[in-house]
UniProtKB/TrEMBL annotation:
Species whose genome carries this gene: Dovyalis caffra
Gene3D superfamilies named among the record's database cross-references: 6.10.280.40
SUPFAM superfamilies associated with the record: P-loop containing nucleoside triphosphate hydrolases
Protein name: AAA+ ATPase At3g28540-like C-terminal domain-containing protein
AAA+ ATPase At3g28540-like C-terminal domain boundaries: 23-95
Region: Disordered, residue numbers: 91-161
């Protein structure tokens, strides 16, 4: 709610405020029953543990519970969900480490990262207009000399400039 514009949520704009939280194990059980017709499975314990350690929306969980291969292959769906939860957990850990490094970095390190001018940063990211033009010409089938470039099939048939 704190990310929404106050004008959007002022009185008279919304009749109901519904909080959509991350998926709990109880919500997962409902999803597993609806999508896979499972009341229990030996992988539920691992999923319960991972859901307690990471944040994943019910929609993301449901996406993993929809069979994409053989109909009724519950283990494949549950294994896919476990893999996604483990990846989300690892991503969250890496993000937290990165934020901690930024928070604890020295003022000199922060200054060094700000020292490069916007022009230098732009040069690092964007090639020059001349390089852009050359790249576009190559993508459109032209060589540096301005002639059309022959594709492999044309070369095989003996075509030339």
């Amino acid at each position: 709610m704190e990310k929404l514009d106050p004008a959007l949520i002022r009185k008279g704009r919304m009749d109901k405020h519904i909080e959509l939280s991350y998926c709990s194990f109880e919500a997962f059980q409902v999803l597993a029953k609806n999508y896979l017709r499972l009341e229990s499975h030996h992988l539920f314990a691992k999923i319960q543990e991972l859901l307690g350690e990471t944040k994943m929306t019910p929609a993301e969980v449901a996406e993993h519970l929809m069979p994409k291969t053989l109909p009724g292959d519950d283990k494949v769906c549950l294994d896919g969900l476990i893999a996604a939860l483990e990846k989300a957990k690892e991503d969250a850990r890496l993000k937290a480490e990165e934020e901690a490094k930024e928070k604890n970095s020295s003022p000199e390190e922060k200054a060094e990262s700000k020292d490069s001018s916007p022009e230098e940063k732009a040069k690092e990211k964007d090639p020059s207009p001349e390089e852009n033009a050359k790249e576009q010409a190559k993508e459109n089938g032209f060589c540096d000399n301005g002639h059309a470039e022959l594709n492999d099939k044309e070369k095989e048939k003996g075509f030339s400039h």
